[in-house]
Design brief:
The protein has 329 residues and is an alpha+beta fold. Helix content is 40%, strand content 23%. The protein has two domains: 99 residues, Phosphorylase Kinase, domain 1 (2-Layer Sandwich), CATH 3.30.200.20; 220 residues, Aminoglycoside phosphotransferase (APH), C-terminal lobe (Aminoglycoside 3'-phosphotransferase, Chain: A, domain 2). It contains nine helices and 16 strands.
Length: 329
């Protein structure tokens, strides 16, 4: 299959005037839903992502979205991201993404260990990168957008801001949380449901209560570009003591900047608070609200990976309990 895929990709790049040296292809890594390759071309080294799409990828039309967002990010010189050469669909349905190579090694990685999400770092003193990390997150959030939620891929990137499909952040969360929960209700593994109909009913009422009671906290006047997974250290590349690249924008959307801090470490939250001027109490409250909703979304993203889905489900349930115990609903 690989030979067919890269034959297709060679044709696509040739139409853009780029010679693709197929014999130089090497495997470069593997994501949760993708294979990553490195290859030489007439415009330098390229990173090639081949993504096995989930229904959530298809919903967001990620091939078109990545091209659109990539163009906007390249306008922001202060944000170290790879230049997107092209993205599209292969004949067998996978999404491909060709981008310029960024030199650097991941700051760390995110693993599941005994049912828990654990971040580990590839450097002895990760704290020396906290300031840069918070600064880059703020730069991404400085890209102001219209509306909220999933990005409309039909806009003109040259003349229009990135635009979401929902009129408000609250509308996005209220509508999508219902869909995420309904998808979880119908999902099963080896003939077993992840949640019972009774649990579904309880969760539905709890989510509705959490949203309705905190509607004012969700009242965001101006949406920002969200990376969606930027606090995962595997998405931060470093070289010679500096952050050299931010990768993996596949889930990016438009919303409240604090959504991007879910499951981040306290040092990063503190530095973001200091640099953004958002007080720590507001961050604490919003992360209590967003944690269970972010992981409910995660159950939808990982429907085909039971181990990850179960971890996300557990984080959703415990997150709802923490929010309830804190008097948030």
């Amino acid at each position: 299959h690989i030979e067919y895929m890269f034959a297709e990709l060679t044709k696509v790049l040739e139409e853009l005037g780029i010679s693709f040296y197929g014999e130089s292809i090497e495997e470069y890594g593997e994501g949760l839903n993708s294979k990553v390759y490195i290859a030489n071309s007439s415009v330098g080294k390229l990173i090639i992502h081949i993504v096995n799409c989930t229904s959530e990828h298809d919903l967001q039309k990620i091939d078109k979205k990545i091209r659109l967002v990539g163009a906007k990010l390249q306008e922001q010189n202060a944000i170290p991201t790879a230049q997107i050469i092209t993205a599209g669909r292969l004949a067998e349905g996978q999404v491909f993404l060709a981008q310029k190579f960024i030199d650097g090694t991941p700051l760390g990685k995110r693993d599941i260990v005994k049912g828990k999400i654990i971040d580990t770092y590839n450097v002895k003193k990760p704290e020396k990168y906290i300031v840069q990390w918070a600064q880059v997150i703020l730069k991404i959030h400085s890209i102001k957008c219209e509306r909220f939620g999933y990005i409309d891929v039909n806009i003109d990137a040259n003349s229009e801001p990135l635009t979401g499909k929902y009129h408000s952040w609250f509308e996005y969360l209220e509508t999508e949380a219902k869909r995420w929960l309904e998808t979880l209700r119908t999902a099963e593994h080896l003939g077993e449901k992840y949640i019972t109909n009774h649990q579904f009913g309880q969760f539905k009422l709890a989510i509705n209560s959490l949203l309705q009671k905190n509607e004012l906290l969700f009242d965001i006047k101006q949406g920002s570009l969200l990376h969606w997974d930027i606090v995962n250290p595997s998405n931060v590349l470093i070289k010679r003591g500096k952050i050299s690249g931010i990768i993996d924008f596949e889930w990016c959307a438009i919303g409240d900047p604090l959504w991007d801090l879910v499951f981040s470490e306290s040092r990063l939250q503190a530095k973001y608070s200091e640099l953004s001027g958002i007080d720590t109490e507001t961050i604490r409250k919003k992360l209590l609200l967003y944690h269970p909703l972010w992981f409910l979304w995660g159950t939808n993203t990982h429907l085909h990976r039971p181990e990850i889905l179960n971890v996300c489900l557990n984080e959703f349930i415990t997150g709802m309990e923490k929010a309830r115990n804190a008097g948030m609903f």
